[in-house]
From TrEMBL:
It catalyses: 2-phosphoglycolate + H2O = glycolate + phosphate. Pathway: Organic acid metabolism; glycolate biosynthesis; glycolate from 2-phosphoglycolate: step 1/1. GO terms for biological process: DNA repair. InterPro entries: HAD-like_hydrolase_sf (IPR050155), HAD-like_sf (IPR036412), HAD-SF_hydro_IA (IPR006439), HAD_2 (IPR041492), HAD_sf (IPR023214), PGP-like_dom2 (IPR023198). GO terms for cellular component: cytosol. GO terms for molecular function: phosphoglycolate phosphatase activity. Its EC number is 3.1.3.18. This is phosphoglycolate phosphatase. Pfam families: HAD_2. Belongs to the HAD-like hydrolase superfamily. CbbY/CbbZ/Gph/YieH family. It is an enzyme of class 3 (hydrolase).
Length: 213
């Protein structure tokens, strides 16, 4: 029996369902090293987790051709790391199926489809997702509200019946801008973020499930 009026849960992916933000961080570091550039965790948090400036803020004013070369290298590193590194978050494999019995489950991620699919070939979580919105599916990424506004159309559900579960400030801002309730489960990569506006800040998905079921 559900304890809340929510009917649909929109999950962020990286940092909430899987511990993969560290892979993207490392892929950026490796690709930047080829250019003699060092990126700190603080840089990653500032430009990737709290805003959408991303790698443009690190690389600076480079040509589109040079940027595409960088992206190709980063993607290669990223895909290799996703195949090799441990990515499980303890308890998610047990909690997600329970939530899927009671709620529609959508995933709203800034990841591209290819790495997303590689991740969930490993996890086996895909059957629990009613729909997925990846970076290619929207014009603007988080913290813009477009990804969550699009999720609302996919869910065919009123905003007051939808819950967002995020791990970082950027996603929280996107959810709030879309008029949605958001619970935050900060991951290790998102430490030090400001979660003002979140209805709850929790320690794990297990805590969220206890409040929901």
């Amino acid at each position: 029996m559900k304890k809340t009026g929510f009917k649909t849960i929109f999950f962020d992916n990286d940092g909430v369902l899987v511990d993969t933000e560290k892979c993207y961080f490392e892929a950026n570091q490796l690709a930047l090293k080829d250019y003699g550039i060092t990126m700190s965790l603080e840089d990653f948090q500032k430009y990737f987790l709290r805003s959408s400036k991303g790698i443009y803020a690190i690389l600076g004013d480079v040509s589109q051709a040079a940027f595409e070369v960088f992206r190709k290298k980063r993607k290669q590193y990223h895909m290799e790391l996703l195949a090799e590194k441990p990515i499980a978050i303890p308890g998610v494999d047990r909690i997600l199926p329970l939530l899927a019995e009671h709620f529609r489950i959508g995933v709203v991620t800034s990841s591209e489809k290819e790495p997303f699919e590689r991740i969930h070939r490993r996890t086996g979580f895909a059957p629990y997702f009613d729909f997925v919105i990846c970076r290619e599916d929207v014009e603007f990424s988080k913290p813009h509200p477009e990804p969550y506004l699009k999720a609302l159309t996919f869910a065919d559900c009123k905003p007051e019946y939808c819950l967002v579960i995020e791990d970082a400030e950027r996603g929280l801002r996107a959810a709030l801008a879309a008029g949605l309730c958001c619970w935050v489960i900060p991951g290790p990569m998102a430490c030090g973020g400001s979660f003002t506006g979140a209805e709850r800040v929790l320690g794990s998905l297990e805590e969220a499930a206890f409040l929901l079921l």
